[in-house]
Amino acid sequence: MRRMWAVLAVAAMFLSAACSTDPDPEEDPAKYLSGTVQIGANSDLPGWSDYVNGVWSGFDISLANWLGHKVGFTPQFLPMTTNERMIKLREASVPGVTAPPIKLVISNFSMTDDRRKEIDFAGPYFSTYQGLLTLSSRPVNELREIEGREVCVTAGSTNQDRIGGFKVLPLPQSTLKQCMDALYAGSVVAVTSDVGVLNGFAARDPKRLRVSPVQVGTERYGIGMPNNRPRLCAFLKAKLTEFVDEAWDQKFKDSLPGIAPQASKPNSQALDPCEQPRPVAQGPAPSATTRAATLTTSARRRRR
Amino acid sequence: MKTGNASKNRMWIWWVLLSVVVLTFALTWWLLTSGDRGAAIADVLGLPVAVVSLVVGVFGAFLGARGSGASPSGPPWWIPELRPRHVAVTGVVLALFAVGGWLYTQWADVEVGLGGPFLISATSTRTIVAQIEQPRWRGDLEFGVLMTSDNKTGDCVQPASLRIKASADARWLEDHGRTARTGERVSIPIPEGTRVVKVFVEYLDPANQGCEVTATLTGGTLSR
Q1: Measured CA distances, A165 to A44, A170, A187, B153, B180 (Å)
Q2: A64-123 per-position pLDDT tens digit
Q3: Rounded to whole angstroms, how far apart are CA atoms A70 and A108?
Q4: What is the Cα Rg of chain B in Å?
Q5: Where among B56, B80, B107 does a domain terminate?
Q6: Same-domain pairing of B97 and B185
Q7: CA–CA dist A128, A265 (Å, integer)
Q8: Where are the alpha helices (DSSP H) in A94-211?
Q9: For chain B, what percentages of helix, strand and coil (3-state, to nearest 5) are there?
């Protein structure tokens, strides 16, 4: 009889372990961000992430270097196009990947509901608007002035999604540098991107370039990371709070001299909450926004 | 021998009847706890159960009258021989079920209808009349907050909040209400005896992005 109870107890233990749906425990953020950390960044955005003569510079680069100094890792910047940011982070989000192509993306990466479905963000560390950059000789002061005209935009950006709602002819390019070449060549009337980024280009060539007063939408930059990383997000959020309080002003001034930050600096005490992970093996994956509700309800039921 | 068989038949029938009673109470209990789904199932089951009961009753009476050989004046074989002890046990069981059912209706959580998904932005608000199958309220109104957005641009869900204010019989329950992000649950104490509860919802746009989201108040429950 005693033996039978022992067998039943062991069987119950195995059964409960087999039925467990807890997701794999997330790696310790301090371990994830140790040694050499691969960080994806655009390489042709003056003032933000610019790679010239073997040297990286810009606000995003300064943030990554500050993080490396504070956390204790060596950033290794991997140049990528705007579109590649999501592609690489999706690859890094596949469960079981032991050597992700990148660990973070710090590259004018706008946090959006759509992107949050596939990756996680910590932020914001910068807020800006979508604007227009034109040649000084052909200024644009209102959107209707460019209706029906070609406007260059980077493929895979939120700018591309938003410009589709206006009466212009979008010309998607892989990089903003290609857009600038098109603007200088006169094949487009304007380049659209985030005002913060356009300011960087205008500051490099102030005589020939002009940032239009036209502003639409809102862009809030965050640090991109693979999906379902609530601990890493909370870790980086705490570091970003420190960064905004201690270093933001000086880094901005150093990277984009002569440009007023205006309302771009976030409130360090009001950074976004981190997403909660989705449970595994629960049928079709719910959207990023529904999974947290499911977890909360389940947790409540367990408590009762 | 005949007396022994009749006694066995009576016991068998007695246990069948008792099992049917217990099963019926169990099914009723389950339907009660299943909310709207239970009501729908009960609606559907009502007719076939009534017809089958009638057919079984008539068929059993027919068989009993034909095959028992009992005298016309005596009870047929399928009527259990009731003893005071049986009656007492049955009474106690039924009383326990009745008391349990009464306690359940008084203290169990009750499902609350809070409508379906709705669009909301910083320039619009929503007032929802909470629906409950009880004449008066008592307990805490609890529900989850869910927001979704299909827009390609904008960060309108994760950093956003809904401000929730509730009124009981046209009186605000809290001056400023409370805020909840997507995935969070809200619990609002409702004064006993309240007849009408309304929930007022306001969207707090993060960073004034001009967002519009689809919001749903999910899993509405009156927790008592």
Answers
A1: 27, 10, 21, 11, 31
A2: 999 999 999 999 999 999 889 999 999 988 877 777 789 999 999 999 999 999 999 999
A3: 21
A4: 28
A5: B107
A6: no
A7: 9
A8: 113-116, 158-163, 176-185, 195-204
A9: 40, 30, 30
Contact B152 A275 (CB under 8 A): no
| Portion 3-32 of A in contact with B at CB < 8 A | none
**Same domain as B125, residue B206:** yes
Contact B151 A113 (CB under 8 A): yes
Q: B197 vs B40, which has greater pLDDT? A: B197
Domain ends where: B107, B138, B173?
B107
Tell me what pLDDT residue A242 has. 97
* Its pTM surpasses 0.90: no
Same domain, B126 and B103: no
SS3 assignment, position A143: helix
Which residues are A77's β-sheet partners? A39
Determine how many CB atoms are found less than 10 A away from the CB of residue B52. Answer: 10
Please choose, from the candidates B30, B102, B185, the residue with its C-alpha nearest in 3D space to the C-alpha of residue A297: B185
Over residues A43-56, the pLDDT tens digits come to: 999 999 999 999 99
Q: How many domains does chain B have?
A: 2
CA atoms within 13 A on the CB side of B46: 7
B155 contact partners, CB below 8 Å, separation of at least 6: A110, A111, A112, A113, A116, A124, A220, A272, B206, B207, B209
Q: Which of residues 98-157 of A touch B (CB under 8 A)?
A: 110-114, 116, 124, 127
Residue A291 Cα distances to A301, B132, B147, angstroms? 15, 27, 11
Q: Do B39 and B78 sit in the same domain of this protein?
A: yes
- The pLDDT of residue A17 is above 50: no
Q: Give the model's confidence band at B21: pLDDT under 50 very low, under 70 low, under 90 confident, else very high.
A: confident
- Beta carbons of A290 and B146 less than 8 Å apart: yes
